[in-house]
Structures are given as structure tokens and as C-alpha cells.
Design goal:
The chain has 4 domains: 96 residues, Arc Repressor Mutant, subunit A (Orthogonal Bundle); 63 residues, Orthogonal Bundle (Arc Repressor Mutant, subunit A), CATH 1.10.10; 65 residues, Winged helix-like DNA-binding domain superfamily/Winged helix DNA-binding domain (Arc Repressor Mutant, subunit A, Orthogonal Bundle); 74 residues, Winged helix-like DNA-binding domain superfamily/Winged helix DNA-binding domain (Arc Repressor Mutant, subunit A, Orthogonal Bundle). 46% of the residues lie in helices and 11% in strands. The protein contains 16 helices and 11 strands. The strands form 5 sheets. Strands 7-9-8 form a 3-stranded antiparallel sheet. A two-stranded parallel ribbon has the order 1-4. Strands 2-3 form a two-stranded antiparallel ribbon.
């Protein structure tokens, strides 16, 4: 009967991580809480023992033997500086037994401490690279080391470089999808909720659920658009949130109930005079009588204008919605 292999803690952690789907080396390091150097050495020895294999696309997976075999675990050996040799098995086990230590209390190097000091709040790997002056590759190596020492957490394990925080940082953070939706919402003008639910890769019910959470958290508020449909916009807290990153293509603004230049001219003319009769609107805008009569009735149905009293020839004045619509039309025309 074949004796069970003796694996170090690092090797055992890698094997247990691989008793699942195929992983890249970096993902194995995160799952096993090891740095890249230890992960590389552990995978190399596991492959020599026939317990793991690497595919042509450089993904690691456990072999049939690695999936089911029992093994004994010993502590990792203390690595000596200098050119590594190949100690005999007995000497290796003696080194293992003599090197038990707590990884969480191990001393960090100056680069890792510098990166940890920059994490005064949750940040992404890209931001850490810019602030530290390290390359992106170096930052990712240091993050794996800090993660192995239990000093940091990856907010989204599937996207580790997206957002990182200290292990003792309990501040509330948004998920990746919540951050995406927050970054799509403008401060002004408000965005139509129905258009916002068309976010790629997210179902409509998921976006609505996220919006409810953002509203509850005070980052987003629901307002009424000029057309009367529900719309959303950022609050001051949402605009200042560290995870708010304005998207290159923000959500389209809420639809206006009217859009033509003729309508804008009529609304602007009435607003300039505060209130006007239909015949005065026709005179100031040079719109034919049949057209202005139909247009004023249309604006009345839309709730943009209203008579001052019940007289047949009473003057018209813009409603609150009419004033808001005119303001939005003027802003968009200027833009």
C-alpha cells in the first residue's frame, strides 16, 4: 500500500484550492493566501508528485489522484538566502519541524508597508499603482503578499484588483455592480429610470434592486422628470462617494414631454411675459392662428400651460412642469 504523501502547509493549501475548477496561478495564490513565490514552488512540487497538472492555457487543476488522495501536512520550511539546493527528504523534514512560525506576524518589507499605508480607504490596484509609483505588476505581487499575511481583503474575489481594503477596515463598500450603477447616474439632469435599467450585463430587476439600495443609502434620490415619469439623480453623498467614478457614457437624461423648437419658442414667449392670451402669443411668435390654437391645447393637455381663470379669453401661464421643461430644453440646446 502506497504511503500518503507529506505536504507542507503551502502545498496542502494549493491542492485544496485546486480540488475545484481550473485556476490561474494568481487565483490559487489568493485562495491559498500565499505569495507568488510560495505558490510557484508548491505547484512545482505538487506537479512532480502527480497531484496537479497545468493545461495548455496555463490553468492548473488537480489530477484524479490529487482529487482523492489523503496526505499528511507539515509546516513550511524556513527558506535560506542564497542559491537553493536539493536537500534530502530527512533534512527537509527536520527543517520543516524547526521552522514553525505564525505567518500573520511575519515582518513585511518596506514596499509592502508602503502600499498598506496608502490604504487609508478602499482603493483599486490602479489607484495604488499611481499613488505608490510601483508598476501594476509589482502592486499585484505586493497585494498577494499582504493578502497572504492577512493584512488586506479583496472586496470582490472574482475581480481582486478592482477594490482592496485593510483587513481591519469595516467601512461599508458597494459591490462592483452597485458601483457601476452609481457611476452611471448623473447629478443633473436626472436620468430616466426606464433607460437606466438597460445597463449591459444586468437584468432590469437587478438594476431596480440596486437602485432601491442606493436610494435607501442616501446616495441617490428619486425625482419626477418633466414628462412625469420617475427619474433618479445623485445626492451630494453619492457625488462624493469614493466609489463614484463618472462613466464615459452616462445614462441618457430623462425624456422631455416636448422637444420641438416651435414649442420652446411658445413656452419662452409666455414665460417672458409671465402670462399671455392666445392672440398675443400668435402675434409675438408669428405662428398662424389655426396652428397656435391647436398647439396651446396640446400644451394644456401636457400640463405645461394653464389658464389664469375660467374666462374664455383668459391668459395662459406656464405651470411648474412647464417652467422645468423650458429650463431643460434651454440647457440641452445650449449644450
Amino acid at each position: 500500500m502506497t504511503s500518503a504523501p507529506v505536504l507542507t502547509r503551502s502545498e496542502a493549501a494549493c491542492l485544496m484550492a485546486l480540488r475545484n475548477l481550473g485556476f490561474s496561478q494568481r487565483r490559487i495564490a489568493r485562495a491559498a493566501k500565499l505569495d507568488l513565490k510560495k505558490t510557484t514552488a508548491a505547484l512545482r512540487r505538487l506537479a512532480e508528485l502527480g497531484l496537479v497538472r497545468r493545461s495548455e492555457v496555463k490553468l492548473w487543476s488537480a489530477t484524479a489522484t490529487g482529487e482523492t488522495c489523503d496526505f499528511e501536512t507539515v509546516a513550511d520550511p524556513r527558506l535560506k538566502r542564497g542559491r537553493p539546493g536539493r536537500p534530502d527528504p530527512q533534512l527537509r523534514l527536520e527543517l520543516v519541524d524547526a521552522s514553525r512560525r505564525d505567518l500573520g506576524r511575519a515582518e513585511l518589507g518596506p514596499s509592502a508597508r508602503r502600499l498598506l499605508d496608502l490604504l487609508d480607504r478602499p482603493k483599486g490596484a490602479k489607484a495604488l499603482a499611481c499613488e505608490s509609483g510601483f508598476s501594476r505588476e509589482r502592486v499585484e505581487q505586493l497585494l498577494l503578499r499582504l493578502h497572504a499575511h492577512g493584512r488586506i481583503e479583496f472586496v470582490d474575489p472574482d475581480h481582486p484588483s478592482w477594490l482592496i481594503r485593510r483587513a481591519d477596515d469595516r467601512s461599508a463598500v458597494l459591490t462592483r455592480d452597485e458601483s457601476r450603477v452609481l457611476s452611471l447616474i448623473p447629478a443633473e439632469p436626472a436620468a430616466d429610470v426606464l433607460r437606466l435599467t438597460g445597463v449591459r450585463t444586468l437584468a432590469r430587476y437587478e438594476v431596480k434592486h440596486i437602485l432601491d439600495k442606493l436610494v435607501e443609502g442616501g446616495l441617490v434620490e428619486v425625482v419626477e422628470s418633466p414628462s412625469g415619469a420617475p427619474a433618479v439623480r445623485l445626492t451630494a453623498a453619492g457625488l462624493d462617494h469614493p466609489q463614484h467614478s463618472p462613466a464615459k457614457r452616462a445614462a441618457p437624461p430623462a425624456r422631455l414631454p416636448v422637444r420641438s423648437d416651435r414649442v420652446r419658442l411658445v413656452l419662452q414667449t409666455i414665460a417672458g411675459a409671465d402670462a399671455l392670451r392666445i392672440r398675443d402669443v400668435r402675434r409675438l411668435t408669428n405662428i398662424p392662428q389655426p396652428s397656435i390654437n391647436a398647439l396651446m391645447q396640446y400644451l394644456k393637455r401636457k400640463g405645461l400651460v394653464a389658464k389664469l381663470d375660467d374666462r374664455f379669453d383668459a391668459p395662459y401661464r406656464l405651470t411648474e412642469r412647464g417652467g422645468a421643461t423650458l429650463a431643460q430644453m434651454s440647457l440641452r440646446r445650449a449644450a
